[in-house]
Structure formats: structure tokens, C-alpha cells
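Page 37, continued from 36.
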């Protein structure tokens, strides 16, 4: 499962490379490597970090050159739509030069002590010159592969060291003349394909829009470029990513009021202190000491340190508040008792239930009686 997810991330990264989004591609490759380490992901990461900045350094991107179809490699190849498409003698000679090269340095046209910058400049120039969309000469695709493979090997310090040590001119000469049967210089194959390297180097901006079919020594090959489908896939990927971001943001907005309420509640609880009194016994708050107000004798409960904090005027002011709260409490309770008694009496009459009538008649309004006594005491009766 992890390997499949890693492969999927690598494919997404390759799509990003074709559309020029190197940073996004690099992020996806790091995720793939973390999920399931692989040589493929590591090679692409190394290629991007080494060559990612090469694009844009004064390089120009060629325009699209039309379509190719099978034909004799010595004859011009014509595109569809009536537009003649041909190759020049210079392009043919360039392909022949690449095929005759005996080592990677000769292919790129650099010396063995060439720096990384020299390799980049040489690759940029040759890749644009021999890309199948630019060069329609027979064997140009093989030359393009050889150029990409040469740069991929020589730009990797370890592969370059091994190549300098073990490379064999005779072996490479043999493989160079049989490139249509297997990859150029199989002894030192690159970890990335020429197209992937080109996309890394130029940000996927080269207009590849056709099916190139070429021939070489009687063998026919097809190279498929499908930008429309690729753009559709990239667009789907981008839309899916935007939808995920929007859904996450929408969910956050929906939860935001709840989060704000929770935050306010927590802050309120942290800042709120226990009340100094209660009309009822509340051991959980420490209000266990019974007292009565001096004026009306209203019972209330306080904590053990109450007398130290409230004395004189502050005590009288607090007890006045307690008496007002107690009167409000009795008024509310009295109203509820009267309402309950009235409801029972109405039900008894409605259902002609003597038991309900008797219960209503015998119901005492204790809170109302307490209220009346308190009001009378307040009036001095």
C-alpha cells in the first residue's frame, strides 16, 4: 500500500515537472521518499536539486515544429495539414556526429575536466537542438536520448567518477551503433529518462504536441506526446487540490464559532472567581457556613474566610444584595407554585377527576407564604 502511494506521488511529481512547477514536484518527491524510499524518487530529487535552477538562464524555448510520420530516413518527412516539414543537412550531420562519439564527454562537446556549469550549458544547447519537436532528422530521437543520458551520468558525481574509472570506448562504440535495440551505453544508464531530465531542466515548457514516428535501420518506433490529456490531468490535479483546500477552509469556518465559544468559556472560567455567597448549601464551592442577614434574617451560606473580607459597610451592602436576590427567588417560586396549583385544578375539572381536585385544594404555597412574611417584615408589620 505504501509503495503504491509512493508511486502515485512520483507520477504526480512528474506531472508537476511537465508544467514547470519544480517546487511542488520536489515536495511530492520528498513525501514519496519518506513514505517508501526508492531509487526512482531519489534520482529525480537529485536531478531537480542539481539542475532545477538551469532553466531561465537565458535559454529560449523553441517553437513547435510539426508532426512526423514513418518514411525513408533519407527523405524529408511531411506533416499533416499540407505544411511541408523537412530537416536540414546540418541536422543530419549533427545526428551522425552524436552517433560517432565514443564517450559522454565527446557527445556533450566538453573536456573531461568540465565543470557542472559547463555541462549545463552544453546540455541546454544540445537538448534544444536535438529535441524531437525541433529536429526531424532520422535518428534525432536517439541522439536526444544519448545527450540526456550523457548529462545525467556526468552531472552525478558518483556516476561520473565510476564512468571515468570504468568507461570503455570500444563497448560504447558498439552500443552507440545499436542504440535502436537498447539504450545508449547501458553500462552507465541514467536514473531519469531524457524527457524527465528535459522537463526538470526547462520546466516542461517545450511544446510537445504530437506522435513522433521515426525509423532507424528498418525498425519503427513511436514516441507519444499528449499535452492535451496531460494538461487535463494536471488541471484535474490542481482542481482536486484546490477543492481539498476549499473544503478544509470551509470546515474551519463552520467550526470557527464553536471554537470561539469554547475559547471564551475557558477564559471566563479561568478568570471567574467563586461567588462570596449562596442562598443554598454548596460544599463544592466551599459555601458551607450558614449566616442570616441582619435586616430581614434571610439565610445564606458563605466560605470560612468570609468574615475577614466583609465587614461594616461592605457587609451591609452585600446583605442588601442577598435580600434582593432572595425576594426575587421567592417571587419566582411563588408564581410557579400558583401555576402548578391552577393547572391541577383545571385538569381535575376537565377530566372530572376528584383526586386531582383534592390535590390542588390541599397544595400549600409555601414560597408564597415565605414571601408574604418577608414583605411584612420589610414593611415593619
Amino acid at each position: 500500500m505504501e509503495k503504491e502511494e509512493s508511486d502515485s506521488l512520483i507520477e504526480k511529481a512528474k506531472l508537476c515537472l511537465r508544467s514547470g512547477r519544480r517546487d511542488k514536484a520536489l515536495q511530492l518527491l520528498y513525501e514519496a521518499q519518506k513514505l517508501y524510499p526508492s531509487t526512482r524518487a531519489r534520482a529525480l530529487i537529485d536531478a531537480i536539486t542539481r539542475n532545477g535552477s538551469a532553466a531561465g538562464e537565458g535559454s529560449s524555448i523553441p517553437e513547435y515544429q510539426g508532426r512526423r510520420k514513418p518514411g525513408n530516413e533519407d527523405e524529408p518527412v511531411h506533416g499533416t495539414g499540407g505544411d511541408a516539414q523537412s530537416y536540414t543537412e546540418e541536422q543530419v550531420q549533427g545526428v551522425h556526429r552524436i552517433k560517432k562519439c565514443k564517450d559522454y564527454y565527446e557527445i556533450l562537446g566538453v573536456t573531461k575536466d568540465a565543470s557542472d556549469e559547463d555541462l549545463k550549458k552544453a546540455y541546454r544547447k544540445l537538448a534544444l537542438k536535438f529535441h524531437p519537436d525541433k529536429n526531424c532528422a532520422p535518428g534525432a530521437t536517439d541522439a536526444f536520448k544519448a545527450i540526456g543520458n550523457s548529462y545525467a551520468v556526468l552531472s552525478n558525481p558518483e556516476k561520473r567518477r565510476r564512468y571515468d574509472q570504468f568507461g570503455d570506448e570500444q563497448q560504447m562504440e558498439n552500443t552507440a551503433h545499436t542504440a535502436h535495440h537498447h539504450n545508449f551505453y547501458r553500462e552507465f544508464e541514467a536514473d531519469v529518462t531524457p524527457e524527465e531530465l528535459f522537463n526538470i531542466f526547462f520546466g516542461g515548457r517545450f511544446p510537445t504536441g504530437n506522435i513522433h514516428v521515426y525509423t532507424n535501420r528498418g525498425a519503427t518506433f513511436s514516441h507519444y506526446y499528449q499535452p492535451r490529456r496531460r494538461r487535463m490531468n494536471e488541471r484535474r490535479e490542481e482542481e482536486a487540490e484546490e477543492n481539498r483546500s476549499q473544503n478544509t477552509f470551509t470546515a474551519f469556518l463552520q467550526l470557527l464559532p464553536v471554537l470561539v465559544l469554547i475559547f471564551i468559556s475557558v477564559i471566563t472560567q479561568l478568570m471567574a472567581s467563586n461567588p462570596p455567597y449562596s442562598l443554598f448549601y454548596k460544599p463544592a464551592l466551599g459555601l458551607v457556613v450558614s449566616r442570616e442577614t441582619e435586616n430581614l434574617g434571610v439565610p445564606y451560606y458563605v466560605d470560612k474566610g468570609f468574615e475577614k473580607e466583609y465587614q461594616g459597610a461592605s457587609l451591609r451592602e452585600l446583605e442588601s444584595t442577598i435580600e434582593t436576590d432572595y425576594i426575587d427567588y421567592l417571587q419566582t417560586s411563588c408564581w410557579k407554585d400558583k401555576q402548578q396549583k391552577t393547572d391541577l385544578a383545571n385538569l381535575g375539572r376537565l377530566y372530572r377527576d376528584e383526586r386531582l381536585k383534592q390535590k390542588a385544594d390541599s397544595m400549600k404555597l409555601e414560597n408564597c407564604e415565605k414571601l408574604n412574611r418577608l414583605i411584612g417584615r420589610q414593611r415593619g408589620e
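The chain has 15 helices and four strands. Flag for discussion at group meeting. Confidence is low (pLDDT under 50) at residues 53-84, 168-187, 206-226.
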